Amino acid sequence: MESAIVYRSVAMSKVMALVDRVVATDASVLITGESGTGKNLLAERIHRLGSRGKGPFVVVPCANIPADLFESELFGVEAGAHTEADSRRPGKLEGASGGTVYLDGVDRLGSPLQAKLLRVVQEKRFERLGGTETVSLDVRFISSASDGLEADVGAAGFREDLYYRLNVVHLRLPPLRERGEDIGPLASHILRQLSARYGGGQRRLGADARQALRSYRWPGNVRELENALETAVIGSSDEEISAAALRLPRGSPAERALREALDKKWSLQTLEETYIREVLKAAGGNKSRAAAMLGINRKTLLQKLRRSAR
Fold this sequence. Notes:
Elements: H1 10-22, E1 29-33, H2 39-49, E2 57-61, H3 67-75, E3 76-77, E4 89-90, H4 92-95, E5 100-104, H5 111-123, E6 125-127, E7 134-136, E8 140-146, H6 160-166, E9 169-172, H7 183-198, E10 204-205, H8 207-215, H9 221-235, E11 240-241, H10 243-246, H11 253-264, H12 268-282, H13 287-294, H14 298-309
Helix pairs in contact: 5-6, 7-9, 11-12, 12-13, 13-14
């Protein structure tokens, strides 16, 4: 379920004011934020309200396309390019002509693919895999990345030249814990959607549930809020939703890990690995930001991650 962009907070009002200005342009937009903050929803909104709104909105899931297939998926394939290519197959770029290409999770691309993407973004032209014909491109680029991408630019792993091409306009979506005024209106909007979906009349939040929503830090952001409310609607037939029905975890991720460690008598290594995973989630998967939160350098964090993966 996708929630609408519902807000009252000053933080989100500033973001949306910039969105209102950028939709009238064809500038490349980079949207950053933690997981679950609504980056995909915002990208679609920019496309829909802009001059290309009637054109296609083509999503390129950068984290989910295998590296060896990325070029063929993006650029397309000429007949005879490989044994299975018996005819020309256009890629996602050609499919987006006149519309928007949304690079979802662009920070997940490796350096070789970043280099190939740079030329497309910079020159708006490319060749299909196995071909020599240059194809001109008429698209707008919108990209999303984890919060803290700036820390990965340059020596840390993300190409500086590509970053500046994508980051003509930067929109940072604040996490839900930084926009507490929006939790109530968002919850009400989501409840209306859920009530319509599951029937049984319009649900409302009890006083204890409202307090629980305000007190919780929402590491999973809007996506976690949607999940908690859906759990409550499905799991309870009461018209008024209680705090217990939300089934929110008690305490912070670190506190939950410590309680579980004591109960299960974890080793120090297991506790460390669990905590590092929680910090990575809180950092939206961004290793540089997670390392800063842990008080260690990025190289040390990578070593610990490799060790835990063995």
